[in-house]
Write a structure and sequence with these properties.
This protein has 346 residues and is an alpha/beta fold. It folds into 3 domains: 8-50, no CATH class; 65-158, Rossmann fold, CATH 3.40.50.2300; 165-293 and 314-345, 3-Layer(aba) Sandwich (Rossmann fold). Helix content is 46%, strand content 15%. It has 13 helices and 12 strands. The protein has helices at 8-15, 19-27, 34-47, 53-58, 76-91, 106-118, 132-141, 165-178, 194-209, 224-237, 249-261, 292-304, 332-345; strands spanning 65-70, 95-99, 123-127, 146-149, 160-163, 184-188, 215-219, 243-246, 268-270, 287-290, 310-313, 315-318. It has a 4-stranded parallel beta sheet with strand order 2-1-3-4, sandwiched between helices. The longest helix has 16 residues, at 76-91. It starts with 7 loop residues before the first helix and ends with a helix.
Length: 346
């Protein structure tokens, strides 16, 4: 015997609301109280209600879905953000359509937003590093789509949800300074990445605030392999570094590997993101934690119930074994020979 497919009438009866209210929850959730939305979504889950998307598209209705235009999910942060957005969207009865463009220029992003519009999606999260001018242009040209940006300069005149990089970076430098470190290596992400630039500027500001100026800077591509290579290059230029400050945990893994090959385990290393694996690095990684689950929750809430324009989420320092008091230096000549030997293998 075939099971009867649930209808909107069934959902309305179980939730104790009108059919019109159920329709509003699906199409204009910002017009419905949160408690009523929860009751309708619970009824949908119990009845296993599945919206007829083809009929909705033909009728020109706005779909109960949001778009996510994201950087590559091969990297930890974008993948965790996407998973969180999907989880919290589904809890509100929303689907997530994910687009991963190969470029972050105006024609490519406009095409992605046009595709969302063609699917009658009117709320989109954009998790790509964009300059203020481009983000503001996209908003002007797509006034019918509510765009939320996750990787832009904080002064941009668009709706944004960002982590407080300044406080996280300041905590890292203050921690290492208190351990006696005075010669730093800063390994930033790509210069095109807004978050990478924000972290680098915050590191430098925190170092200067402590009265320090001894830092050498390099740029990686977020990967562990770039962390390894840049570490060898930085130590070849400045063998007396005692601390490496790294813009994400994946590059920090490569840094730790390079230091192990160079027998320079006395150098302290800090990462950024607090990936689940970072506590199992050798040694366990001191890093800055960003709550990606909270980011996903707030992002979905911002799209369904618009509020303030700019929101900063907290970060916190997680101290583990990869940072320690500054050790006595190894003789300079021995350091140079070790670095030359490893560089010859690359």
């Amino acid at each position: 015997m075939s099971r009867h497919s649930a209808t909107l009438d069934d959902v309305a009866r179980l939730a104790g609301v009108s059919l019109q209210t159920v329709s509003r929850v699906l199409n204009s959730p910002h017009k419905v109280a949160a408690r009523t939305q929860d009751a309708v979504h619970q009824a949908m889950r119990e009845l296993r209600y599945v919206p007829n998307r083809s009929a909705q598209l033909l009728a020109g209705k706005v779909l109960p879905a949001i778009g996510l235009i994201s950087a590559s999910l091969t990297f930890h942060a974008p993948s965790q953000i996407a998973a969180s957005v999907k989880k919290h969207a589904q809890a509100r009865g929303l689907d997530v359509v994910i687009v991963m463009p190969d470029k972050a220029d105006h024609p490519t992003l406009q095409a992605a937003l046009t595709e969302c519009r063609a699917q009658n999606i009117r709320s989109v999260i954009i998790n790509l590093p964009l300059e203020s001018q481009l983000a503001e242009q996209l908003v002007r040209e797509n006034a019918d789509i509510h765009c939320l940006f996750l990787d832009i300069p904080p002064e941009s005149e668009v709706t944004s949800l960002l982590f407080d990089h300044r406080s996280g970076c300041r905590a890292v430098i203050d921690h290492l300074w208190a351990l006696g470190h005075r010669e730093f290596g800063f390994l930033a992400g790509p210069e095109s990445a807004i978050s990478a630039r924000l972290r680098l500027h915050a590191w430098r500001d925190a170092l200067h605030r402590n009265g320090g100026h001894q830092a050498i800077t390099a740029f990686g591509d977020w990967s562990a392999s770039s962390g390894f290579t840049r570490t060898v290059e930085m130590l070849a230029k400045k063998p007396t570094l005692s601390a490496m400050v790294v813009a994400n945990d994946q590059m920090a893994l490569g840094v730790l590997s390079a230091l192990a090959h160079l027998h320079r385990r006395e150098i302290s290393v800090t990462g950024y993101d607090d990936t689940p694996d970072s506590q199992y690095f050798q040694p366990a990684l001191t890093t800055v934690a960003q709550d990606f689950d909270l980011l996903g929750e707030r992002a979905v809430a911002c799209l369904t119930t618009p509020g303030q324009r700019h929101t900063l989420l907290p970060t916190r320092l997680v101290v583990r074994q990869s940072s320690a008091p500054k050790a006595n230096p190894t003789p300079r000549d021995a350091l140079i020979e070790q670095i030359k030997a490893l560089a010859a293998q690359l």
